[in-house]
Design a protein that fits this description.
Length: 629
Amino acid sequence: MSGKKLTGEVYYPDKEILDRAYAKCESIYKSAEEDPLAFWENEANNLHWFKKWDKVLDDSKKPFYKWFVNGKTNIAYNCLDVHIQTPRRNKLALIWEGEDGEFRSYSYFKLHRETCRFANVLKSLGVKKGDRVTLYMGRIPELMIGMLACARIGAIHSVVYGGFSVESLHERLEDSKSKVLIVADGAKQRGKIVELKKIADEALQRAATVESVLVVKRTGHQINMESGRDMWYHELVNLPIANSSECLEIVDAEEPLYLLYTSGTTGKPKAIVHTHGGYMVGVYSTLKYVFDIHEEDRYWCAADPGWVTGHSYIVYGPLLNGATSFMYEGAPTYPYPHRWWQMIEKYGINILYTAPTAIRGLMRYGDAWPNRYNLSSLRLLGSVGEPINPEAWRWYYRVIGKEKTPIMDTWWQTETGMFMITPLPCTPLKPGSGTKPFPGLKMDIVDEKGMPAEDNEEGYLVIKSPWPAMLRTIWNDPERYIQQYWSRFPRMYLTGDSARRDEDGYYWVIGRVDDVIKVSGYRLGTAEIESALVSHPAVAEAAAIGLPHSVKGHAIHCYVLLKTGYEKSDKLIEELRQHVGHEVGPIAKPEGIEIVDSLPKTRSGKIMRRVLKAKALGQDPGNISTLED
Ligand code: WT7
């Protein structure tokens, strides 16, 4: 560390953490800043390429950047085949516990074999390089294996989070034109079954492109199997075709690896496109340096594979690093609030990466639950998804980490693919700040005109140089890619967040400045919730806003204008809540719905959510000169 004393509440890492860390703060920032492309090239050289790149970065068609130009690789090969050629072949790649206590483990050798078998099943269904495959499952190993199997044959996976419902799944199947849907019969959550296959059946009635449905058995409860369309995975995987050894497609670095839908400012969710090459280099190196993964570590990212956190840091990042990952199927507090702490002790977890909402949720139950367990295996903790309030940070640090485990508060997005603002284990920490951009990244906070903001002045968080795991485009909509991310300020990527930077250069992310609401760390668009509401026969117009919530961070509140002939009642309000749950998913169910006679609009007819929000919070709505009424 430099000699300068940092301001505010600061936590310095212990010597043990510093000595062990791969990243040395004295040198890594400086060398990456001096030559960022050399830094990424060095990282890429740690991975396997069938043919090396001609050029690290091609920026001739900005903002359509290309990384590792003409390099040939395959991310799944790097996740599995590379390791099985070494003594790591017998190391555990994945340890899994079901909510019901079922246990499974996969060595690298076994995970490779299962992935190849899955890949052959997909090939037998006619899936080819570039085809889209949608996966809709709970947190089970088959989700990871299915993703890797797609990557292996060059198919593009699109994972739809198991907490989404009919319309969300339908939209994503249709937009991606998926050929195959892989779905579990159900998922186990809080002792109940989530009827995934049933939801999928309903979504498939609305979507036409899916030719085959591959059903993975998890719950074993009675489901409908449509003949000619639906097939059991466990039956196909036992056929001789599954054992073919030819299931690897060598792909170009820029070949799409996956689509992941996320909510934006307006309209329908859009599919973010990530690639094999640059994405692989980005997630491999960020995980290595930030969570400091060593050979003997057991790492647990408690996110869902259905979100980008799971893609980058449950599936790809840990496997690229040859790590042992732990995955748990169920709810954190099921059947009791000690479940997580019990598993940390039982499996000897060294690194835990979760979200502020989960921390706040567990904190509510008090210290006695975690205190009953030996958590001394923990060495590093992580947080992601929304700003962490200092109170939750301190609890996590003190009660879970026993004041010896640094907390890596990682800021990033579906679009960035990898950590962007994050501490390294050597970084002095301030609760609530993600500290600084990862080595080699140029980020800034700018004012309305795009000029750098002063210290401590709130402004737009932007990224000023390309990074390897960056999104390449929006699927089928390159115009929107330019429009949404690269148009507000010239040559800057707009994150959609506001932030400030303090006098020590530490970033403090404040939150979204667009129409995105973060509910329990999940990203939802006001447009999605509103369009679900107006799809109900009683609703003429709707507006959704996010209001502060002590556990969820933000909760959804809606204002609804009824069609004539419909009467306001508690029953109708409950029906509308259920309707949103059925169409979008349980996570999107509004906390409150208010029936109103009019909505504040601009003269051009745009709903002014800002005014609704100010009113709900009892604040001054600010400039309302554009208000129609
Ligand atoms: C948005 C991106 C990145 C994986 C999960 C979310 C918010 C994310 C932090 C953090 C403050 C954060 C931002 C960002 N966010 N991490 N550590 N501190 N805010 O991915 O669903 O694409 O959401 O999540 O608002 O823009 P996502």
